Amino acid sequence: MLDATTSAARLDWNAERSALVADVLRGNPGSRQTVRLRVHGESMLPTLWPGDVVEIESCSLAVIRPGDIALAHAEGRLFLHRFVELRSPEGFVMRGDSMPAMDPQFPSEALIGRLVRRVSIHQSTNGQASELPIEVTPQADLNSGLFGVVLSRALGFVFCHFGAIRRLALKLHRRRSLWASELRSAGSGAELESVG
Predict the structure, then answer these.
(1) This prediction's pTM
(2) Would the pLDDT of 56 be above 80?
(3) Tens digit of each residue's pLDDT (9 = 90 or more) over 155-190
(4) Domain 2-195's class?
(5) Which of 51, 105, 152, 178 has the highest CB neighbour number within 10 Å of its CB?
(6) DSSP symbol at 102
(7) Which CA distances in Å does 123 have to 63, 96, 126?
(8) Angle of helix 163-195 versus helix 145-161 axis, rounded to 10
(9) Which sequence spans correspond to the domains of the chain?
């Protein structure tokens, strides 16, 4: 019974946080609002990895394009998937790069933003988190035209249908991230020593 209560409390908390993000992005109509979120799922592999921090900017269906990575809010959850198409004036469809099928159709009001950049965050030697921004606009690296979307979907298909390859890729990604963080920490420590 404790597990069920804990799960229900966690779901309520996640729904509240999702609603808060949606409220911020919907904010003042006509003004651009931004939020930063940490990616937790694997549905956008290889484009986005668990632990990535992304910056989302508010937008409407009028400016979103097929291939953009969009954020939708529905059923108390946030969905960060690739925008596929506007199906009708009442809805749109998205799909995770490593998902076997399209998401169910979202109502038009569910679209709350699109990814504008990914931010690399690492721990420095003094334990403080610092950021290294990596500009990734919908027209650039993450959404580099038809070829980039097709390549991402092709790799996503491999990750979707071959669990061993997916697990290996996630393991290598974690090791690479840890190694890069350690390398940056060692480099910043050396700079601090030479300054002092």
Answers:
(1) 0.76
(2) yes
(3) 899 999 999 999 999 999 888 878 877 776 665 544
(4) mainly beta
(5) 152
(6) P
(7) 36, 29, 8
(8) 120
(9) 2-195
